[in-house]
Amino acid sequence: MVRCPGGFGRAPLMSYSSEWRCARLETMFEVYVHVPFCLRRCGYCDFNTYTARDLGNGASREGYAHQAIQEMRLVRQWQLDHGLDEGPVSTVFLGGGTPTILTPSNLAAMVQAIDGIWGIEAGAEITTEANPDTVDADYIQALADAGFTRISFGMQSAVPHVLHTLDRTHTPANVEAGINAANRAGLRSSVDLIYGTPGESLDDWRTSVKTAIALGVNHISAYALTVEPTTTMGRRIAAGVLPKPDDDDEAAKYDIADTLLTQAGFDWYEVSNWAKPGYESRHNLGYWRNVDWAGIGPGAHSHYGDVQGSAVRAWDITHPKVWAQAINEGRVPFAGSETISATEQAEEQLMLGLRIREGLDIAQADARIPQAAWRQFADEGLLDPRALNEGRAVPTRRGRLLNDAMIMQLMEYIS
């Protein structure tokens, strides 16, 4: 578990005392369930996802929930065998892939199993991602009835030609209908956007951000397009069919998003995430605060801060068929695991703390980083000088844009 003091993520939340913060992090435990199925593979996607054609005679969607629940039981026993009495669960997140390609009863069964195996806290955040094409009002109401509290729609863009380039099949109207249905069902809703798509103009991007705001959601994520060479889009860019994303263009689009969202009452709380106050994704914040979580499903990662005295991460077998075979044989389907060294923990502390608005508690950072280095970044406009005077390293907007470069420089002191 996360240790206080001496662990990660101890900078106090703005709205809570540091004592509450430490006690809360010591008890937080999250569950992520990866659903690796999609109706079709988007050209830019490099996630561990599969279509029916990809899988052939492999693992079936119909049996997936049952196999995931079997893995939950195996993981719970593994935890107990390693001295981890985790639970109750603070947040649940179903991601993918497209979780809503499964039936609502499948998703409900997995949540019910989590409650039966670990217990789910009262008031827990329970989220699923959704492709707007795969849900309707009845589906969303069934999610609410099953205990879900939040739904995250893959909007990506509000501009048809950008959606076409991304190989997305939904329309802006699908997104609006889904959010309206979520509102009626009492679910919080969020949308994900992507900027930097080949052929997307600055005006296209402004249209997408303004449209997302106008939908009335209280949480918006905006991610720069990352193109991997093995994807369909990567091959099209390599062949010169599509232009390569431009760093300056993406920086300009980040500025546009941050300006428009701030004007609309959203606060950034992580480099790529904005929310109205009180509507932050508690599950995602758990990752940045380095709490414990169990990853269920092909390719899912898990993290435990204290496994018999060591911090450990583990990851599942990626292919659904091989993953299912391991489960059917009664084995936790880990493809591998590793102990996180002290140096790696210090590096993670930098990477995680410098991405969130609450920032990094400098007093708990690696002592090899000189105070002059923090002050230099503040002088260069990358860190907020007022927060620095209070002992926290909080990136400015420019610091968020140059986050990776700043972190790499700091890592030179500890690697």
Automatic annotation (TrEMBL):
Keywords: 4Fe-4S, Chaperone, Cytoplasm, Heme, Iron, Iron-sulfur, Metal-binding, Oxidoreductase, S-adenosyl-L-methionine. Its main location: cytoplasm. InterPro entries: Aldolase_TIM (IPR013785), Coproporphyrinogen-III_oxidase (IPR034505), Elp3/MiaA/NifB-like_rSAM (IPR006638), HemN_C (IPR010723), HemW-like (IPR004559), rSAM (IPR007197), rSAM_sf (IPR058240). GO terms for molecular function: 4 iron, 4 sulfur cluster binding; coproporphyrinogen oxidase activity; metal ion binding. Residues 23-267 form the Radical SAM core domain. GO terms for biological process: porphyrin-containing compound biosynthetic process. SUPFAM superfamilies: Radical SAM enzymes. PROSITE patterns: RADICAL_SAM. SMART domains: Elp3. GO terms for cellular component: cytoplasm. Pfam families: HemN_C, Radical_SAM. It is found in: Cytoplasm. Probably acts as a heme chaperone, transferring heme to an unknown acceptor. Binds one molecule of heme per monomer, possibly covalently. Binds 1 [4Fe-4S] cluster. The cluster is coordinated with 3 cysteines and an exchangeable S-adenosyl-L-methionine. Belongs to the anaerobic coproporphyrinogen-III oxidase family. HemW subfamily. NCBIfam families: hemN_rel (TIGR00539). This is Heme chaperone HemW.
